[in-house]
């Protein structure tokens, strides 16, 4: 048998089991009960009073009734098969149509102050008191420009405070940003409020929200939430909300100096911002030098032409 099974590529255990079967053996899986009329009546009797019951709940009711009558229990798979054949299953919830707007771009941008994102997170202190944090993040250098910690909710007032603090942190005490900046958020009530959107426009921000049930997401801000909870909130002392809020400022500053996001070429947000500023200043210096040399060459050419005449 071993050589034959090896040639055919089959298992010996299966062949041995088939050889040991009696002559009157019958596959029990094919011996289904074809008369389901009685079971259909029982099922209809159950769902007549409870039409919201699915096959599992119907099977539970039938099982209890049969136990009360000291009858053999019924299999849940048979109940499902009978209800499916006779159209007694619950209708599936229709799949909502997916939006046509696709996310083919990137959340990150090449330069600072082009797109900001915002989100919030919550954690519980040791005494059960909640602390909710709302923040604003630059999508280039990943700097957390502003944040607010409160025991209240993520309201529109908190979001507007974060917006204004971010503008002041980047541009100083100015009425609005020098150029329009995209403000990427989710569809939270504090972000989509009319007052919040009007305030964002007044200070130079362009509100952008991600569509519901779409591939787009506020992924950079959500990744920041995960990082804060994993690396800082999980280990910092948080006896109460006041202690946690006071430590949050220190941890926030520590992250700006020591956190090295992979997408930022392993530089901290502060170093990225300084690097961009130095690069900008060097480009400006090179531009000024090129302009000076160009003007000098033009002056020398004009002087030479005048001497030739």
TrEMBL record:
Domain (Integrase catalytic): residue spans on this chain: 95-277
Q: Write out the GO biological process terms.
A: DNA integration
Quote the InterPro entries the UniProt record gives: HTH-like_dom, Integrase_cat-core, RNaseH-like_sf, RNaseH_sf, Transpos_IS3, Transposase_IS3/IS150/IS904
Q: Organism's domain of life? A: Bacteria
| MF-aspect GO terms | nucleic acid binding
Gene3D superfamilies attached to this UniProt entry = Ribonuclease H-like superfamily/Ribonuclease H
Entries under Pfam families matching the protein? HTH_21 (PF13276), rve (PF00665)
Task: Spell out the PANTHER family in the cross-references.
Answer: TRANSPOSASE INSF FOR INSERTION SEQUENCE IS3B-RELATED, TRANSPOSASE INSO FOR INSERTION SEQUENCE ELEMENT IS911B-RELATED
Q: What is this protein called?
A: Transposase
Native source species: blood disease bacterium R229
Lineage of the organism: Bacteria, Pseudomonadati, Pseudomonadota, Betaproteobacteria, Burkholderiales
């Amino acid at each position: 048998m071993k050589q034959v099974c090896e040639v055919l590529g089959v298992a010996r255990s299966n062949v041995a089991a088939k050889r040991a079967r009696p002559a009157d053996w019958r596959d029990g899986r094919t011996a289904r009960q074809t008369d389901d009329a009685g079971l259909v009546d029982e099922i209809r009797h159950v769902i007549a009073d409870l039409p919201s019951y699915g096959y599992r709940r119907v099977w539970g009711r039938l099982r209890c009734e049969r136990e009360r009558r000291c009858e053999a229990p019924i299999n849940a798979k048979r109940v499902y098969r009978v209800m499916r054949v006779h159209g007694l299953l619950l209708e599936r919830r229709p799949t909502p149509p997916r939006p046509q707007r696709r996310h083919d771009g990137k959340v990150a941008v090449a330069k600072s102050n082009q797109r900001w994102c915002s989100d919030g997170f919550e954690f519980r202190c040791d005494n059960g008191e909640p602390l909710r944090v709302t923040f604003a993040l630059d999508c280039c250098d990943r700097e957390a420009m502003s944040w607010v910690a409160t025991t209240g909710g993520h309201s529109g007032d908190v979001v507007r405070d974060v917006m204004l603090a971010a503008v002041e942190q980047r541009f100083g005490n100015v009425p609005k940003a020098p150029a329009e900046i995209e403000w990427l958020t989710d569809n939270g009530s504090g972000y989509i409020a009319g007052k919040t959107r009007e305030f964002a426009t007044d200070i130079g921000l362009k509100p952008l929200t991600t569509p519901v049930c779409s591939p787009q997401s506020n992924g950079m801000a959500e990744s920041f939430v995960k990082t804060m909870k994993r690396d800082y909130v999980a280990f910092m002392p948080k006896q109460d909300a006041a202690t946690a809020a006071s430590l949050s400022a220190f941890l926030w500053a520590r992250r700006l100096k020591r956190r090295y996001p992979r997408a930022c070429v392993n530089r901290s947000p502060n170093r990225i911002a300084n690097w961009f500023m130095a690069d900008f200043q060097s480009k400006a210096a090179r531009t000024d030098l090129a302009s000076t040399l160009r003007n000098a060459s033009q002056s020398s050419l004009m002087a030479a032409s005048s001497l030739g005449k």
